[in-house]
Amino acid sequence: MTTPPSASSGATPLVLVVGAGPVGLTAANLLGALGVRVLVVERHTTTSDDAKAISLDDESLRTLQLADLDVAVYPIIVPGTGTRYFGVGGRPLVHVRGTGGRRHGHPFKSHFAQPDLERVLRSALDRFPHVDVRFGTRLVELNQYPDRVWATLASGDGGRATRQIEAAYVLGCDGGRSTVREQLSVPLRGRSYPDDVWLVVDTLDDPHDERYGMHVGDPARPLVIVPGRAGRCRYEFRLRPGECAPGAAVPFDLVRDLLRPHRDITPEQIERSVAYTFHALLADRMRDGRCFLLGDAAHMMPPFAGQGLNSGVRDAANLCWKVAEVLAGRAGDALLDTYDTERRPHAQAMIDLSVRLGRVVMTTDSGRARVRDMCVRAALRSRRGRRYLTEMRYRPDTRVTTGAVVPTDGPGQALTGTLLRQPFVLHGSGCTTTRLDDLLGPGWSLLGIGLSDDDWTAVTAAGLPDARYVDVVLGDRAPRERGRWAAVADRDGALDAYLASLPGHLLLVRPDRLIAAVFTPGQADHVARALARLLPPPLVPQPPTAIRRSVIF
């Protein structure tokens, strides 16, 4: 390693985000909203015109809400109703809608066009004077030192103009061919599927107006149809040998023949057509010193679970608050290690699910397809089987079991390591309706469920992280503010159904809305000690936050 350049004295630490796709722009917005100084660099000269990702789930929309972006994003999405599956001969099998409720405060799955999303995310960064975005700028070299990273950037015609910048941390959000990953010499593990060639066609003026995706598991020609906004629609066809090679120019005659059962098409109505293969790959590590890998730079998966972009947004949600906490001196470096600990197992589980869905749903084996259809129809005859399929209970458990979480004994432990639900709640003396996250604010939260004043006094003295304290009122009662404590009550039954079994307990909620611990006042000291290796001693309860404007859906 060469001798490090002199550190900038007194400069506000900078986070370098490499890549201005949806994941990089989401990360920049999250960091910007937390007051972190950010530089985003992107080798292309503008945001992308390619409609690659097309689906945002409820968790991703909630993450955008954390950055106050949901109001801007809703006009460019189609709030969806899940996915409808079809079997042999195109016969209907099952409509997967999730749980039916909005557990996270947003639709289960929504469709969008990636160029629209990138433009919204890019424009939103103009809110932050401490965030700088530079297109036409690429990363050339990274050199890490114990206290900083020096990055060499190239810009201008031919990339001949170079400059060095000093960063506290680097976030590699630069896609499957990541320069950051290459500079760190981090290998990808898994496999590719060179023989499974798919054709994606994005069309205009399309007659489809369904608010759900359609996965047609007909072994004669597996197919995916995803309607979008304003007459856009995506079609994906599994190709047969010899029809078109990956990356080759797609003949219009092939597109027209494949689309004929669904619509007429002209060349002008084709926005994009690409033949491609997919990968199931995961980086050996998602943290390397002061550098982190997010999105496709860290993991790539088949498209059949719709989790490629959503997994990248989860990466950003998990990491950005941790970086902000460390830079502000509110946490130690060990907190950053939990990014890899928490995210890699879940990313691997989503990769495995995507591979399984492709093998089962999109099979070209007619025998396997007939057995699949029989099993689905048999499962739908029982309540348990229906819920397993329609609520996507076959998805992997997303619970975090190791990292910045503290398991304890007692009821409610199934909630530890899961995302806090986001119902509408009543708050304040006027019983105003708002979404729970809009009340919690950007930092840690501590929800006390039916606690007495003595309970709150004991908890305040325990040494927990600096947090916003929220008194949760159960039953048919109105919330009542108590000094520095905010108070919420049930609006429509969702809050009571979620927490009514936990009177006298507390939920410690991280800034990314993951429940770090469920405990009683008597266990508060244990939780505080367990978190001490990640976080410094506590401060005092934060006053109730000003409520941001809610979007009522």
Tell me what you see in this structure.
- Helix 1 packs parallel to helix 4 (114-124), helix 1 (22-33) runs parallel beside helix 7 (308-327) and helix 7 runs antiparallel to helix 8.
- The termini are far apart.
- This protein has 553 residues and is α+β, with helices and mostly antiparallel strands.
- The protein has 14 helices and 29 strands.
Kindly estimate the percentage of residues that lie in beta strands according to DSSP: 25-35%
Q: Report how far the terminal alpha carbons are from each other.
A: 55 Å
Output the strand order for the largest sheet: 6-5-15-16-17-14-18
The averaged pLDDT comes out at: 91
Task: Figure out the total of helices.
Answer: 14
Overall 3D form = globular
C-alpha Rg (nearest Å): 24 Å
Helix content: 25-40%
Number of strands: 29
Q: State the secondary-structure class.
A: alpha+beta
Largest beta-sheet characterization: 7 strands, mixed
Identify low-pLDDT runs.
537-553
Layout of helices and strands:
Layout: E1 14-18, H1 22-33, E2 37-42, E3 55-57, H2 58-66, H3 70-73, E4 77-79, E5 83-86, E6 92-96, E7 109-112, H4 114-124, E8 131-135, E9 137-145, E10 148-155, E11 161-167, E12 169-172, H5 179-184, E13 188-192, E14 198-203, E15 213-216, E16 223-227, E17 233-238, H6 252-259, E18 270-276, E19 279-283, E20 287-288, E21 291-293, E22 299-300, H7 308-327, H8 334-361, H9 366-379, H10 383-390, E23 424-427, E24 432-435, H11 436-440, E25 445-449, H12 453-460, E26 468-473, E27 486-490, H13 494-499, E28 506-509, E29 515-519, H14 524-531
Parallel strand pairs: 1-2, 1-12, 2-8, 5-15, 12-21, 25-26, 26-27
Antiparallel strand pairs: 3-7, 4-7, 5-6, 9-10, 10-11, 13-19, 14-17, 14-18, 15-16, 16-17, 19-22, 20-21, 23-24, 23-27, 25-28, 28-29
Helix pairs in contact: 1-4, 1-7, 7-8
